[in-house]
Specification:
Oligomer: single chain
Bound molecules: cobalt (II) ion
Number of strands: 22
Shape: globular
Distance between the termini: 28 Å
Length: about 425
């Protein structure tokens, strides 16, 4: 079993993350389904399906008259910079830079003065067809240099980042036109002219690490949300059988609003739920009514230098266990809170609570968005972390295991509701 930091290192883009999970599911005996074919599902069967190569849903069928769905949903994407099509830019002077646009709401400053490279997928002409190839340029290829303090004396009292200027990575000096394309083609094992389309993003070369006097902390790229994606996945694989369908969902594009075919505001989750019900002759409405969703996306830990940003009485700490996110911005209500708290007690996992400070807006989650498509009891949770949306984030070294334990118990359970009485079995 790979640990979290290895999984993150081997998942430099969302496409790699989905590919890695798919490979592990294959090894665990899961059958890959195609959305383009009819599904014949069997009792006791284990299946997974991907959409766009960047979202994945895995599930197990316990019996044809299953109770409902026990679902976790997390996201595969993270804030970064998207590489534009005509990427190579000449000048100023002999410099060669790579043109990008922002993807998601990133902290810009951490991206500067660090070795970077490119990861994602390219679509390659293969005879009459077009093939997907994952790309990770495994070398220190790019860097975004800061301006010296001598030329910008005000930088430490407030820096405004202009995305067309301040965060453009440098690749070299004097390279020929097409040099970047040639590197991509070489990595993908094709000719430059055979690359017909790309989805490529900047990624940090720095690997994740464990640190602190007593190794309290982990720092790594993309902890939001690969830490939850990984913890839910481990819990999903670890769970023993229940009368419900355990369903693991990893969705894309949360950082840009989820409104894509592979995002929480697309139809992927509802399509899969509908097809499972149809294949097994199970009534969809009653199955969904007996379902429960854990929307898992990281939460803010109290900041050591800025504790004032947290609410007075809701102050999650790293290594303090799973955080239940509550308040008007979240899907969690008292019932979902109660159900999830009971599950965590059963798992021996501590629970903390997060509310936004009342004058701060906070971020959204995919729980509410997914609920507009398939509506069910939903709790928003996360693991406490610092520096959310930095390219190198920090979390507690113990919390991933807490999430795995909680999700193993969750995925071993069935849920139903009758007139305000909630039963977990
Ligand atoms: Co997130």
């Amino acid at each position: 079993m790979k640990d979290l930091l290895t999984f993150i290192a081997e998942s430099p883009s969302r496409f790699h993350a989905v590919d890695n999970l798919g490979r592990e599911l294959e090894e665990a005996g899961y059958t890959r389904l195609s959305e383009a074919r009819t599904w014949a599902l069997e009792t006791g069967g284990k299946y997974y399906v991907t959409r766009n190569g960047s979202a994945l849903i895995a599930f197990r069928i316990p019996k044809a008259d299953f109770t409902g769905f026990m679902i976790s949903a997390s996201h595969s994407d993270a804030p970064t910079f998207h590489i534009k099509e005509n990427a190579q830019m000449k000048g100023p002077e002999s410099y060669v830079r790579i043109n990008t646009e922002g993807y998601g709401g990133m902290l810009c400053a951490p991206w500067l003065d660090r070795p970077l490279t490119v990861a994602g997928r390219v679509l390659v002409k293969a005879g009459e067809a077009i093939e997907t190839r994952l790309v990770y340029v495994d070398r220190d290829l790019l860097l975004i240099p800061n301006v010296a303090i001598h030329m910008n004396r005000d930088v430490n009292t407030g820096m405004k980042f202009d995305k067309k200027t301040d965060v453009i990575p440098l690749m070299g000096m004097g390279e020929e036109e097409g040099a970047f394309r040639a590197i991509l083609a070489q990595t993908a094992g094709c000719e430059p002219e055979d690359i017909l389309g790309t989805d490529l993003y900047l990624c940090l070369r720095q690997k994740g690490l464990v640190w602190g006097a007593e190794e309290e902390f982990i720092s790594a790229p993309r902890l939001d949300d690969l830490q939850c994606a990984y913890g839910c996945f481990r819990g999903f694989l670890k769970a023993s059988g229940s009368g419900s369908v355990p369903l693991y969902a990893l969705l894309d594009n949360e950082e840009v609003g989820s409104r894509t075919k592979q995002g929480a505001d697309g139809t992927f989750l509802e399509d899969v739920i509908g097809r499972i019900c149809a294949a097994l002759g199970r009534d969809r409405a009653t199955a969904v009514a007996n379902s429960f969703m854990v929307s898992a996306d990281n939460a803010h830990a109290v900041h050591p230098n800025h504790p004032e940003y947290h609410d007075a009485t809701h102050r999650p700490m790293m290594n303090g266990g799973v955080v239940i996110k509550q308040g008007v911005r979240y899907a969690t209500d008292g019932a979902a809170q109660a159900v999830f708290t009971a599950l965590c007690r059963k798992a021996g996992v501590p629970v903390q609570h997060f509310f936004n400070r009342s004058d701060l807006a906070g971020g959204g989650t995919l729980g509410l968005i997914a609920n507009a498509h398939v509506s069910m009891n939903t709790v928003d949770i996360g693991l406490a972390q610092l520096a959310m949306h930095s390219c190198f984030e920090t979390a507690g070294s113990k919390d991933t295991d807490y999430l795995i334990e909680a999700m193993a118990v969750f995925y071993s359970a069935s849920f139903w509701e009758e007139n305000g009485r909630f039963t977990l079995e």
